[in-house]
Amino acid sequence: MTFPMNIHEYQAKALFAKFGVPAPQGAAARSAAECDTALAGLPEGPTMVKSQIHAGGRGKGTFADGFKGGVKFCRTKAEARELAGRMLGNTLVTAQTGPAGRRVQTVYFTVASDIKKEYYLAILLDRATSRPVIVASTEGGVEIEQVARETPEKLHKVLVDPAYGLADFQVRNLVGRLGFNGDEAKNAARLLRGLHAMYWETDAAMVEVNPLITTPTGELLALDAEVCFDD
Ligand code: ADP
Ligand code: MG
Questions:
Q1: What is the Cα gyration radius of the chain?
Q2: Does residue 113 line the site of ligand 1, with CB under 6 A?
Q3: Which of 6, 60, 172, 224 is the most buried (most CB within 10 A)?
Q4: What is the pLDDT along the chain (231 residues), one digit of tens a residue?
Q5: What is the Å distance from ligand 2's center to 151 Cα?
Q6: In terms of Cα–Cα distance, which of 174, 208, 204 is closest to 190?
Q7: Which backbone phi and psi does 161 adopt, to 5 degrees?
Q8: 109 near 48, Cβ under 8 Å?
Q9: Phi then psi for 104, rounded to 5 degrees?
């Protein structure tokens, strides 16, 4: 989905942190020197390098010079440093950029998480009712339009009454429909409240987390973040 005034993933995750929406630790860089500083602040181990452009589909994108993948898994920080060098200044073409692509001026290094399962979560304005709608699915990492087309029964929607805000029963209901139990359910409820508070208080047009993941230890983490504002 495209809206005016996008912010980058790393900026969206800074907002997430303010509203208690958990995401893996990360740091952005715009130059070789900044890559060193950014990586110095992260733990050694599996690290993602993520091109920061205003378009989705980065993981499956290809750079103008043939280098594949705008989002890369690296086993070490040294490897992440090297791949960042291939991305910075390069032009990334994805299904959403059009053939001209977008020049990568910033990369984001972030701790690579152990993924148990991927989910989809978004909050946007429902045109028909003019109310915020939470859209969630157990089919994460997939374009939501595809889920709507192929498995609409796996798309869960919650309309929020702007006068009441997000009600406890709505949170419980959605958490249940997504199949969360125990610690995961508690974490999911907290994350939903945080994301809704952020959507509401920042007056965002859309916040999208795809994928939202569970980890083997029962955590929920926002691995991707797209936040848009209207003018
Ligand atoms: P895009 O949607 O633009 O392709 P994502 O941020 O969703 O970019 O990254 C693509 C894929 O890379 C994700 O669906 C996820 O499988 C993987 N990924 C992204 N960030 C992380 C992370 N921190 N740890 C592990 N895997 C990740
Ligand atoms: Mg994504």
A1: 18
A2: yes
A3: 224
A4: 444 588 999 999 999 999 999 999 999 999 999 999 999 999 999 999 999 999 999 999 999 999 999 999 999 999 999 999 999 999 999 999 999 999 999 999 999 999 999 999 999 999 999 999 999 999 998 888 888 899 999 999 999 999 999 999 999 999 999 999 999 999 999 999 999 999 999 999 999 999 999 999 999 999 999 999 987
A5: 19
A6: 174
A7: -75, 115
A8: yes
A9: -90, 110
Q: What is the largest CA-CA distance in the chain?
A: 52
- Ligand 1, residue 141: give the atom nearest the CA: 14
* 3-state SS, residue 83: helix
**Which protein residue has the closest C-alpha to ligand 1 atom 22?**
112
Q: Which residues are catalytic?
A: 120, 208
Calculate the CA 87 to chain-centre distance. 20
Residue 135 per-residue DSSP state: E
Could you identify the residue written with the tokens 């699915």?
137
Q: Is the pTM of this model over 0.90?
A: yes
Query: Apex CA 74: angle with CA 69 and CA 80, to 5°?
Result: 85
Please say whether the beta carbons of 43 and 76 come within 8 A: no
The rounded distance, in Å, linking the Cα atoms of 86 and 82 is 7
Amino acid at position 12, single letter: A
DSSP structure class, residue 161: B
Per residue, the 3-state secondary structure of 103-121, as one string, reads ECCCEEEEECCCCCEEEEE
